[in-house]
Amino acid sequence: MFGAVSSGALDMGFDWTGYWAGQIPVANIVGSMPFGPAPEVALGWMFLGGGMEIIQKAYDPFGVKFLPCHLAVQEAGGWFNKEINTIADFQGLNMRIAGLGGQTLAALGANTRMVPAGEIYLSLETGRLDAAEFSAPSLDVGMGFQRVARYYYFPGWHQQAAWYSIIVNMDVWNKLGEAKQDAMIEACRANVTFNLADQVNAQAAAIAKIREAGAELRRFPDEVLQGLRTTANTVMDEMAAGDPVFAEALASLRAYMATVGEWTALQAVPPAE
C-alpha cells in the first residue's frame, strides 16, 4: 500500500504506521515505542509538540503526506502459556510480537516472529507459540485467546500508544487545497478523540469476559519491567545512531515525556484505601 500511494497508483490509504518501519525506521516509534508515552501524551506530542513535523521529514522523500488519524490505547502485555517471573524467562520463548518490542525480546534471547492474526489462536493451541501479543482486551477477547492461553500479562510495555494514519500521495494532497486539507486534519482529530473514549469504555467488559473464561490476569514483576526498559532503550539508541529522523523523534519524545511528566506527578493522588 505504501508503495502504491507513493507512486500515485492509490490516492491514499489507511495504516498502522509500524508497517512501514522497513522503509521508514521512525515509523517504529510512532507505531509502538516501548515504554513510550501514554495516549494523552502521545496526542499532545503529535499535534502540539512537533511530532507531525518530525515524522513528515521521513515521508517527504517518498512523496507521501502523513496524517495521524487514529490513536490506539495501551495494548496488553500478551498471552502466555509460561510464567514470566524473571527476565531470564524470555530466553528461548517462542512469541508472536512486532516492532521495537519484538526487537527488545529478541535481544533478550526470545524467538520472536510475526504470525498473521488468523493463525495466532491455532499456534497458541498447538504449542507452536508459547506467547503472543495482539492488541488491547477489547480486540483480544474476540479472537478467543482466553481459551488457549493460561496467563494474560500486563502492562503493554511494548506499546503504550500506537498511531494509525491516513497516508496521501503528496501531489493529491497539494491539489486538495487548504480548506479540504484543514477539514481532513480536523476530521482525524475528531476521530482520535471519539475512538479514545470508545476504547477506554470497552476494556472493562472485555476483561470481565476474559476472567470468566478462566484466563489469569497478571502483571509483569517490576524487576522484569526494569530489565525490559533497559534493553529497549539500548535497542532504540542503536537505531537512533543509524537514522537521523529516528534520532530526532526519539530525543523529542523523551524530552516531551519528561517535561509533561511533571504535570502528572504534581497532580498524582494516592489510591483509595
Q: Main beta sheet: strand number and arrangement?
A: 6 strands, mixed
For the largest sheet, list the strands in their spatial order: 5-4-6-3-7-9
Overall pLDDT level: 96
Q: How many helices in DSSP terms?
A: 11
Count of β-strands: 9
Radius of gyration: 19 Å
Weakly predicted, low-confidence segments: none
Q: What is the succession of H and E elements?
A: HEHHHEEEHEHEHEEHHEHH
The end-to-end span amounts to: 51 Å
Proportion of helical residues: 40-55%
Structural class: alpha/beta
Strand content: 15-25%
Dominant shape: globular
Protein model, in words:
- By secondary structure, this protein is α/β, with parallel strands linked by helices.
- Helices cover 52% and strands 15% of the residues.
- The chain is built from eleven helices and nine strands.
- The strands form two sheets. A six-stranded mixed sheet has the order 5-4-6-3-7-9, covered by helices on one side.
- The longest helix is centred in the last third of the chain and has 35 residues.
- The N and C termini lie far apart (51 Å).
- The mean pLDDT is 96.
Topology:
Layout: H1 2-7, E1 12-16, H2 27-31, H3 39-48, H4 51-59, E2 64-72, E3 78-80, E4 94-96, H5 99-107, E5 111-113, H6 117-126, E6 131-132, H7 137-143, E7 151-154, E8 162-169, H8 170-176, H9 178-212, E9 216-219, H10 222-240, H11 244-267
Parallel strand pairs: 4-5, 4-6, 7-9
Antiparallel strand pairs: 1-8, 2-8, 3-6, 3-7
Can I get a quick summary?
The chain is α/β, with parallel strands linked by helices and 273 residues long. It has helices at residues 2-7, 27-31, 39-48, 51-59, 99-107, 117-126, 137-143, 170-176, 178-212, 222-240, 244-267, and strands at 12-16, 64-72, 78-80, 94-96, 111-113, 131-132, 151-154, 162-169, 216-219. Helices cover 52% and strands 15% of the residues.
